Amino acid sequence: MAKWTLLLLHLCLASVVFAQCDGQRYRYRIFEEVEVTSDVLYGSNIGASGVNEELFMDVYRPAGDTHTSRPVVVLAHGGFFLAGSKEGTDVVPLCEDLARMGYVAVSISYRLGIDDLFSLEVSLLEAVMRGVQDAKGAIRHLRKSHAEEGNPWGIDPSRVVLGGSSAGAFIALHSAYIDDLDEVPDAIDLTQPGLEGGLEGLSGSPGYSSEVLSIVNLCGAMGDAGWMEVGDAPVVSVHGTADETVPFATGFVQLLGFSVSQVDGSWPVHLQAESLGLDHAITLLEGEGHVPHMSDAGAYDVTRAAVTSFTSRQVCPSYSDIPSYYDVDAPPAVGCLGDIVANGSVGVEDLLLLLSEFGCTTGCEGDVDGDGAVSVADVLALLGVFGTPCL
């Protein structure tokens, strides 16, 4: 009896997550309207000009959603650290569509500016580091709001995904894969105002974790893919093979025709993740240039599907792998495989019957996933549709 009580306790703790993973949520569009809360202050720090800058985020949520423990996807815009905004077309449509799939999506501002055009490579490295510190501050703020402010956005602080487009993808990749000060290039002076505080920085909400569940890399790169290590965060990448601004392979970042800094693009990131055994995926857009999802509807659809096919598996481990391209706007009907007692819904009676057959290997009524045995996988599958009426 004690064994089953302990198992039920663990299952109840897990059910908040798995009850959301019904085969539709986080993978398909299931909401039509999106609620946006703009200009939420998440921190401040000294910018490239030496002046203190306030930092803001826009929060996108599915309107009418009753769930209060949802994964968060934080996105940083592009613009070569000189331009762009959290209202940019490279991030807003994705935030809106992610919210329609049930996520909480967050578009952040971060400190822009390259302070020395005569030392462009060093200035770019410093700009990346400021962005990394700001992104970490934004993630800490979200966790602080959950812990201290009554969870106003209805998030699950254990499921935070970080991503970005172009410069924003540089921020996401370096946030995840630079985890040692020894990996910071010597040219960056982390004692100067605005770069103090080490990798975490001083952009707000100290004391909270900035760890992420996975990374979304849209046309980004990193200084050295070798910084990735075993156990690091999973990553999904989308990149055009004809990108002349940020190379999809190893090459130089270009600004106004000038080669600024050699980087490893999405392909070396993919190869490194593969060699390390990290969960990863890549979609190469043949013949496409830089951030094609901003202006090409077809490229946007491919990008959106690539991101959500991968990310849905990260936030819902019970989800199976699917192709990187699928119709996000056509959710399948949710079945009732968990209705073991055949009473028209998936409920406590089904769970109890399944548990009574736990370990069964032949002729099992509780074999929800159809693999011939009753195991933890069946429990998770049932919890994924728990409470579902069979219509």
Q: Write the CATH homologous superfamily of the largest domain.
A: Alpha/Beta hydrolase fold, catalytic domain
Task: Compute the number of helices.
Answer: 8
Terminal CA distance reads 35 Å
Q: What value does the Rg take, in angstroms?
A: 22 Å
Fraction in beta strands: 15-25%
Task: Characterize the biggest β-sheet.
Answer: 8 strands, mixed
Detailed description of the structure:
- The structure is a single chain.
- The protein starts with a helix and ends in a 7-residue tail after the last helix.
- The relative contact order is 0.13.
- α1 packs across α8 (376-384) and α3 (120-148) crosses α4 (167-177).
- The protein folds into 2 domains: 1-22 and 334-391, Type 1 dockerin domain (Orthogonal Bundle), CATH 1.10.1330; 23-315, Alpha/Beta hydrolase fold, catalytic domain (Rossmann fold), CATH 3.40.50.1820.
- The strands form 2 sheets. Strands 1-2-4-3-5-6-7-10 form an 8-stranded mixed sheet, sandwiched between helices. Strands 8-9 form a two-stranded antiparallel ribbon.
- The protein is an alpha/beta fold.
- It is built from 8 helices and 10 strands.
- β5 (155-165), α4 and β6 (214-218) form a beta-alpha-beta unit.
